[in-house]
Amino acid sequence: MFPPIPNPPVTPTPPKFGEADLIRRSASSVPQPAQHLTEVAKLIDVSKCIGCKACQAACLEWNQLHEEIGINVGSYTNPPDLTENTFTLMRFTEWVNPETDNLEWLIRKDGCMHCADPGCLKACPSPGAIVQYSNGIVDFVHENCIGCGYCIKGCPFNIPRISKVDHTAYKCTLCSDRVAVGQGPACQKACPTQAIVFGTKEEMKGWADGRIKDLKSRGYANAGLYDPPGVGGTHVMYVLQHADKPSIYAGLPDNPRISPIVETWKGVTKYVGLAVMGFAAAAGFVHYLVAGPNKVTEEDEENAERLTEGTAPPPADPAQPQGHA
Amino acid sequence: MTNSWTDIRNTDLVVIMGGNAAEAHPCGFKWVTEAKANRGAKLVVVDPRFTRSAAVADYYAPIRQGTDIAFLNGVINYCIQNNKVQWDYVKAFTNAAYIVKEGFAYKDGLFTGYDETKRDYDRSTWDYVIGEDGFAVVDPTFENPRCVWNLLKEHVSIYTPEMVSRITGTPKDKFLKVCEMIAECSSPTKTMTSMYALGWTQHSKGSQNIRTMAMLQLILGNIGVRGGGMNALRGHSNIQGLTDIGLMSNLIPGYMNIPTEREKDFTTYMSTRGFKPLRPNQMSYWQNYRKFFVSFMKQMWGPAATKENDWAYAYLPKLDVPSYDVLRAFELMHQGKMNVYFCQGFNPLQAFPNKAKLAESLAKLKLLVIMDPLQTETARFWENHGVYNQADPSTIQTEVIQLPTTCFAEDEGSLVNSGRWLQWHWAAGSPPGTAKTDVWIMSQIHLRLKELYRKEGGAFPDPILNLNWSYKDPHEPSPAELAKEMNGSALTDVFDPNDPTKKVLEAGKQLAGFAALRDDGTTACGNWIYSGSFTEAGNMMARRDNSDPDDTGAYPKWTWAWPANRRILYNRASCDIDGKPWDPTRKLIEWDGSKWAGYDVPDIAPTAKPQDVGPFIMNPEGVSRLFARGMMREGPFPVHYEPFESPVANVIAPKIKGNPVARVFKDDLAQFAETASPEFPYPATSYRLTEHFHYWTKNNHVNAVLQPEFFVELSEELAKEKGIANGGWVRVWSKRGSVFAKAMVTKRIRPMTVDGKTVHVIGIPIHWGFIGAAKKGFGANVLTPYVGDANIETPEYKAFLVNIEPSTGPVA
Known about the structure:
The complex is a heterodimer of chains A (325) and B (812). Chain A has helices spanning 54-62, 119-123, 150-154, 176-179, 186-190, 201-217, 260-267, 270-291, 298-308, and strands at 22-25, 40-45, 89-96, 103-110, 130-133, 138-140, 161-162, 169-170, 196-200, 224-226, 236-240. By secondary structure, chain A is α+β, with helices and mostly antiparallel strands. The longest helix of chain A has 22 residues, at 270-291. Helix content of chain B is 22%, strand content 16%. Chain B is α/β, with parallel strands linked by helices. The longest helix of chain B is centred in the middle third of the chain and has 19 residues, at 438-456. Chain B is globular and about 85 Å long.
């Protein structure tokens, strides 16, 4: 049994990380933090998962999300896709192993992978709408989000979703609010079989090694850890029975990479880049005004105006190290 | 459970058959994952469907529903043929060597003594030869052809791998692979645990399903040991408590019996409850029955229960039938013979079979009282909900009174888990609106009835007027007061029977355990098996010390387990005949030369010499039974019987339909489909899903999101044959009703070959109805047959016949 994370003290504790620990901020720069936090990670062991959806329920409840009651479309995957309220989703795949002709019911908990090199953040044109902490958590800051949807394009895992209500993007926060007070994510806390464990990234890799050894002893010769290098590794990792074929797990990318368009965009000089970003943001803003009824905060308005008028905050300095990606 | 949830981590092999632990017991399932992690344990799943448990199993084998006995008899046969038997255990701790009476025989699916008109047996030959010394005759050499072992060997010999495959539809190679994995556990240092639930109980021969596995576990030497056992995963958080407390029509607390009509007085009642040992030196613990019974009567009626009036024996109801189980109750309602029904924490319109019959029955009642924290379909049976409940309120005269109750989180008390742990809990919230505790409601009814009897008299007011009701607040006894009564107390000073000057108990003090009970009226105890749970040392059930010396998985100071805080039943059997553990690395208790001691409370007298006294102390034999004598209605050995609705005739006894001794009411017989009916060609099975808990959580938004709409599961092959699209509508119907559902077309169900014929199984989850947050749907019990297990009347929800067609869905 992985040592459980003890319950928090009853007295309020100051957050263990915050603004000062940012290593990346979308469309803007941050000062290099004085210290680098230990990187955290959530490890999802698909081979121990029983698909009970306790994680999904805990996510809805902790984050006070109200998902709609859908219909049955012939699957245990409910709702059928991630939504702005469903940050995590159990995806069920029936796969017949061609080598043994045995059926395997692969159940993968889908959600944000918290990439070390986050495509969403790189694609985001709105300053400070997406941030990355030195512990590896990638978080969305809704008051800064302009709802352009570029984060979805930038994400190699197709995770963020735009709310039809407030037109900003949502995804798993790795329970940054809980982690900030020394707790693990709500999904991890709720998991009855410890298919989800949480700790430092190093600890998680070590725990995964033991699990992979066990799986190999049970005949899963290709068991392995999913921590894809194409995105610099992730802070949500999987133990897979068939790590040589990630895509059989409901389309988990075999070799995820940030789209070349996003990379090119990030590669151009800062002035050109800024101009492109400003234009893209403006386009995005216009798009979301047109897209439907809006409830935009004053701050959104201000940000948008700043962007359209070309008075964006100082752009990122390419000379400045942006984390360790 | 003979063992506990936490003990499952000590096993080498988990067999999930007749249950789906990952699906229905996800929290308890963590102990399976622990066993895999800690001991490299393997998990085998045998089920008609590839379930969530199968998803994490090392090996999966399909089986047609209702054929578990054939499968398990086949495994027993395999073990015997391949000498995979823990011989020292079988010889010392089972009745394998006992000689069976002449006349007992088995032929064509029946044992000696069958009476077809009564659907019952004369069981007089189903017993041991008793010697002149009054004890059962045994042959330790097993040479006597009439010894249990030889009869068993012959009985299971027909269940060859070929025959098993022909009956069950399990491919022979898969059956043999499961046999091999199980047979390894015949080693004294390897154990297997059986985790089962409603997949075994909900058959017309449910008790025999379980018994067959218990026999296999005995042959493998897996009862009483760490990581072994027969582990019933209970379906409600306190259903274990329900049976312990005797909330059955034929029981009083602690698994004692309500008298029958024939037992007119206490002497007659006790005359068949002597429990004289069948072998020398045996404890035969039920010999203390009188102490448990008299103490119970003293708790119930206090000073009104005296030696002179047979401890108020006359106050107890006397049964004129074996039991007033739920099926009988609704049958009586249906016949207009039962007019008032109290429905407390129960939603029978959803939970019991043949919804149409249930609805007709409820409509014949004069008064229906519902006590429930939730709105239930039963409370609204009279309301029209279109196709989902086609009632016509204008024709229904039943008066329905709904009394809203608190739920478990709004009240304090104990819940008994599957491992027999009585876990005290405290209120986490206040009840909403006018909801009251069940205790308050029952007290009000009692006090008002008592007042009516006092004022107006009646045919027999004594049991009500004299009921012991000495609570601080008579309107609402506290959970602690009630728990203390369960534990029991001394009514007067109690003296040592061997030394009358020695006071062993002081009047008014809580008892330390059931060993202190007396049959002379000096002790009171509401439930002898709970004695020790609330002592002078306090509420043992509220203990929260999770220390576990040497990591045995016993957690002896966490809450309290009945009986006597014993965590593993029959634990003396964890040692060999000399009292040394079979597996020293999994020591539980051992004999130190003068007494038994160890990690668990010994399930034997502490000074009982290992060679003399057998571990199965509740049995007069002192050993366990491979041959059940007359205690099971179907016979001393399990036989494969088909479900009452089956796609094939019984291969081993083609003339027998269903279980030959199951009770069937006349009208229900007419509502069974023919064997191999072309009208209803598909065997269906009903079950639970992780996302929901019975019919409660459809009231909860989050659960409804996770599994929103009623569906049925079928194979890709059948879907293709019928033109059914995944996610499309289908209609499914049985001889009793019809439902519309979404189709889940899946690879997890595959056609099976049974007796040369292709059989398609259809899976039907149970959780939808016409009340709640989830989408309206149909209960699976619109379709299920109205027949129960022959011994305990649990309905046959797991195997029945249906037909299916594509549909455009229900028309509102």
